[in-house]
Design brief:
Layout (H helix, E strand, L loop, with lengths): L4 E2 L7 E2 L9 E9 L2 E8 L2 E7 L6 E8 L3 E7 L5 E7 L2 E7 L6 E2 L5 E2 L1 E8 L5 E7 L7 E6 L6 E2 L18 E8 L4 E9 L8 E9 L15 E7 L10 E9 L9 E10 L2 E12 L2 E9 H8 L3 E7 L4 E6 L7 E12 L3 E14 L9 E6 L9 E7 L5 E6 L4 E6 L5 E7 L6 E10 L12 E5 L6 E5 L4 E4 L5 E5 L3 E3 L7 E4 L7 E6 L2 E6 L8 E6 L4 E3 L9 E7 L3
Length: 563
């Protein structure tokens, strides 16, 4: 079983309840859009994947994308394609895909003699693979570098050695996962044992390294920080009715550590007029987290309008100020900058760090469009569907099935696509109607989308009639056998197991075809007179059009006459 744990610093972890997926190993997660994640994993069928919008509830997409693939790791390429690195035995190979689901195996071998591994793409587009050698006599973690992602050169030396003899990681070590942080810092999570057997007593440890050279403490640097996120702290306006707290996450200029920035000098300004000074700061993974207290009267005076509240569009780093001013669509763009001092390096200004939008918004967002509904729950063991569509960028989409009995909310990232997973296990078989509407940050809602209907069918097909009937005698020697079912059918996994045998248990050569609700079996040669024949249809040889399989092994017999 695959489970999960959560951490604020990447070092101290708290287990989360529940099971994410069963029957898989070596999961690797890739964020394919804001708020949408794809997990690649190893399964008995090969490399597979699952999708999630919250990182907790996963819907399996496929378990056999590449047969026999172990330890699949997927990297997004600058071209928009995806490359999967995977292992077969002690060889690392690769495959390419335009969408992360359909894979074409690439020729050649990336690395030989490797056990478990991890791969990352550096900012310059090159790829590094960290791996343990397949020979258990070697206990170090090695690395290989490639500028094109295909031809790798093993780097000299080892990246990581086991701990002292007798320590918890003093035996063999295997690479588990790699995480990149700002300023070129890389953290490796690795599995280790106290002895040579990695399957024995083991734990997960971590180690850090820097892949790039940072300038000297007093070097000349670009004093333009990157404000990576600005947001309103939820519920903080209760401190004072006319106050709100704003949090900014600032990535220091190149070559500067977050601790070198003086938080007491940082200010939030509009058109060179200070809105607020930084009150407190916290360093997280070399990002400086700074809080500002906004007084709405002060903001109103600076902007010349009556401000009643502040929201943030986190997706586009926009500060949205709610106002009661007319006209209804008044829009005033101003520059919101963050500035301060860096110890020993002078002042900095985050030019055009965040563009603030001041408006009273009463216009409804565009009506969303439901594009597709995948995996409609057509089998009893499938409980969820994935609804995918398009909507106005920055809005929130409310997706519902059957008049809001089952509903979920999904955000819309910059590509305008949304995805939502709905649990429909409580709904009965029949036509299920899906609708969606969008809500923007100002609370305006769009009309409902056009209805999209899918059919929920969990009832398997059953045999309703056979010709000849079971036990029939004097059947003609050239008889064409037909089996009719309770609904239209298609071939199932065991379709090739359908057979006809004579009384001596000899197989009869037959041709098979399906049309509508009828299976037709045509013997290649005429049947023998005075002989008894048995038709056998295995479970899952036939499925209905929704994918439900025939549940029982069905047989019937008949006897041939003289004609």
């Amino acid at each position: 079983q695959t489970r999960s744990a959560v951490s604020k610093d990447g070092l101290t972890w708290t287990k989360e309840p529940g099971v994410r997926l069963s029957g898989i190993a070596h999961p690797h997660i890739l964020e394919i859009a804001k708020g949408t994640y794809r997990m690649y994993f190893e399964s008995a069928e090969g490399a597979g994947s699952a999708i999630s919008t919250d990182g907790l509830n996963w819907m399996t997409e496929s378990r056999g994308q590449i047969a026999g693939a172990l330890d699949p790791i997927v990297l997004e390429l600058p071209s928009g394609n995806y490359r999967m690195y995977y292992r077969t035995g002690d060889t690392i190979k690769s495959a390419i895909s335009p969408d992360g689901l359909r894979w074409t195996v690439e020729s050649g071998v990336r690395i030989s003699g490797a056990a478990e591994f991890a791969a990352i793409r550096l900012p310059d587009g090159s790829v590094i693979i960290y791996y343990a050698e397949s020979d258990p006599g070697y206990t170090e973690i090695l690395s290989a570098h490639s500028s094109d992602g295909l031809n790798f050169t093993v780097e000299p030396g080892a990246r990581l050695y086991p701990g002292p003899a007798g320590s918890l990681d003093g035996g063999r070590i295997l690479t588990t996962s790699i995480v990149q942080f700002p300023e070129g810092v890389i953290r490796m999570y690795y599995q280790a044992s106290s002895g040579s057997n990695i399957n024995g007593y083991s734990r997960v440890f971590s180690a850090v390294a820097a892949r790039i050279e940072l300038p000297a403490p007093h070097a000349t640097v670009d004093l333009d920080p990157d404000v990576v996120e600005v947001r309103v702290d939820p519920g903080q306006q209760a401190i004072e009715p006319r106050e709100q707290l704003i949090t900014a996450f600032i990535k220091p200029p190149a070559g500067v550590n977050a601790e070198d920035i003086n938080p007491n000098t940082i200010k939030l300004s509009v058109n060179n007029v200070t809105l607020a000074m930084g009150e407190s700061s916290l360093i997280m993974d070399n990002l400086l987290k700074v809080k500002f207290r906004l007084t709405l009267e002060n903001v109103s005076a600076i902007l010349g309008i009556n401000v009643i509240g502040v929201d943030v569009d986190e997706l586009h780093n926009k500060l949205r100020v709610k106002t009661t001013s007319a006209p209804a669509r008044q829009v005033d763009l101003v520059e919101l900058t963050i500035s301060g001092n860096i110890i020993n390096l002078g002042s900095f200004i985050g030019k055009d760090a965040v563009r603030a939008t001041v408006q009273q918004d009463t216009m409804a967002p565009d009506t969303p469009i439901i594009g597709s509904i995948t995996n409609p729950i057509n089998k009893g063991d499938v409980k969820t569907v994935l609804v995918i569509g398009t909507a106005e960028v920055g809005s929130i989409v409310h997706v519902a099935a059957e008049d809001s009995i089952n509903k979920v909310i999904a955000s819309v990232p910059s590509n305008g696509m949304f995805s939502a997973i709905l649990d429909l296990s409580t709904l009965v078989d029949g036509t299920i109607k899906f609708t969606a509407y969008a809500e923007d940050m100002a609370g305006n809602t769009s009309p409902n989308s056009l209805l999209v209907q899918v059919n929920k069918d969990t009832v398997p097909p059953v045999v309703s009639k056979t010709d000849p009937p079971d036990g029939e005698v004097n059947v003609p020697k050239d008889k064409i056998i037909t089996v009719m079912f309770s609904e239209n059918i298609q071939t199932g996994a065991a379709y090739n197991g359908i057979m006809v045998k004579d009384a001596n248990n000899n197989l009869v050569a037959i041709n098979k075809s399906i049309g509508g609700n009828t299976l037709t079996i045509t013997p290649v040669k005429k049947l023998s007179h005075k002989s008894t024949y048995t038709v056998s249809i295995p479970a899952d040889a036939i499925r209905d059009t929704a994918g439900n399989a025939l549940e029982i092994y069905y047989t019937f017999s008949f006897s041939v006459g003289r004609k």
